[in-house]
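Let us walk through a complete example step by step. Step one is to write down the protein sequence. Step two is to encode the small molecule, magnesium ion, as a SMILES string so that its atoms and bonds are unambiguous. Step three, shown after the inputs, is the structure prediction itself.
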Amino acid sequence: MLIRCSAPRTLTIYHSTAAFLRLKSSKKSSSPIVSGFTCSVSCMTSLIFHFPLIRSNIWKKEFHSSTAMAKSKFEYVRLFEADDRCLPNTWIAVRVDGKGFHKFSTEHDYEKPNDIKGLSLMNRAATSVMEEFKDICLAYGQSDEYSFVFRKETQAYSRRSAKLSTNVCSLFTSAFVYYWNEYFPTSKPRYPPVFDGRTVLYPSNKNIRDYLSWRQADCHINNLYNTTFWALILKGGLTPTEAENKLKGTLSGEKNEILFSQFAINYNSESEMLRKGTVLVRRKVLVALPNGETREKSQIVQEHVDIIGDEFWNTNSHLLTVT
Ligand SMILES: Nc1nc2c(ncn2[C@@H]2O[C@H](COP(=O)(O)OP(=O)(O)O)[C@@H](O)[C@H]2O)c(=O)[nH]1
Ligand SMILES: [Mg+2]
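Step three: the predicted structure of the complex.
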């Protein structure tokens, strides 16, 4: 088969056993493919989509060699790109955190101090991230943040730090918006939510455990404070300033006491998701088949458990084992 498209250069496609495509490019043009090529877009599109061979090998090869000449002049700019590959054999934690979520939660009428729908949406978005990135062995979330732990030996994106954080952060954010309606069926987001993302490396098992402990301790400290703070305001009639002054310098035991004696709230009876945050891990679960039988399937499950003590890590020793 022979297809010709006319000047200023000729596109010729010979389609046989060894098909090839030749682009005769005008030497004058600095960007031959774009500026000098007069074949119509629809013609090009039809070419690309009708000839898988062209699309895959030949097209790629010729495009590359054609553009190589044009590229060479500018190619040096690649040297400005820093190599940000993460150290080998090191735990990679990617944490996303809501930007200005104090405002976002107020603008979207989140319940105080905790909004179950909002937190569940965070868990849904994080599940999407784990579904996509199989090398994430565990995720931990609380408030407006989520941490994702990549296996020590992961080769995802050649361990490039920015690739990992931007892909995780982007998917998390889009999933947050994508699933919004399932959790807030009567309202739309009033503006696009933003999450930042960062990659942090931890060389030892102790380090990664301490990192996760740090985030869970943060959850505990903030949640106890917020629960007491909002009880003083919503149930005790204090102003935010009065509540803040009352809690200034108090230890956790004193906050527990205020909750219990003034509001009959036993903090330990509060929901585990609020007190401990959410751990996402993969577990083998039995799923029912249409024929009535069951099959084991790996599924991402949510657990609201302590990850500071040893118990979780003893029962889940596989999480820290390099495979
Ligand atoms: N009312 C409410 N606010 C929340 C909830 N989860 C997170 N937030 C808000 O999000 C903030 C997250 O903290 P941080 O990241 O330090 O603040 P940011 O800089 O405003 O995102 C909290 O201080 C709360 O104001 C929730 O479930 N309910
Ligand atoms: Mg935030």
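Step four is interpretation. The pocket of magnesium ion (ligand 2) is lined by residues 97-98, 101, 144 (CB under 6 Å).
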